[in-house]
Amino acid sequence: QVQLVESGGGLVQPGGSLRLSCTASGTIFSLNVMGWYRQAPGKQRELVATITTSGSTNYADSVKGRFTISRDNAKNTVYLQMNSLKPEDTAVYYCKLDLAIITKNYWGQGTQVTVSA
User: Fold this and answer.
1) CA torsion angle 5 9 10 16 (round to 10)
2) 84: phi then psi, degrees, rounded to nearest 5
3) Which one of 20, 32, 39, 62 is most buried, by most CB atoms within 10 A?
4) Helices within 10-108 (DSSP H only)
5) How many angstroms separate the Cα of 6 from the Cα of each of 15, 37, 41, 53?
6) Sorting pLDDT into bands at 50, 70 and 90, what band is 80?
């Protein structure tokens, strides 16, 4: 079965930077979409950014220009570089793998990101 392991979360001051990593293991099809979602207390889980195997990206308007998603296909790893962090970015960040060919989605355990002075 597929497993996603995230790392890189933590506490950072406003304006600071953080990089999240997520590595997928198991049977990973060559064509897939990986992404990051986040959920703050009392709020719905929302899309942050996604990236296809070919490198096509999609960002939420709230993070555009500040966050950058990238991936290493050979390592089945997706990254999220977060710059100019704001307190409203505070949330649990989840890694997602979408294997459209078998209509299956897989989620990581989540990693806490806290932006506070």
Assistant:
1) 160
2) 50, 50
3) 20
4) none
5) 23, 12, 20, 19
6) very high
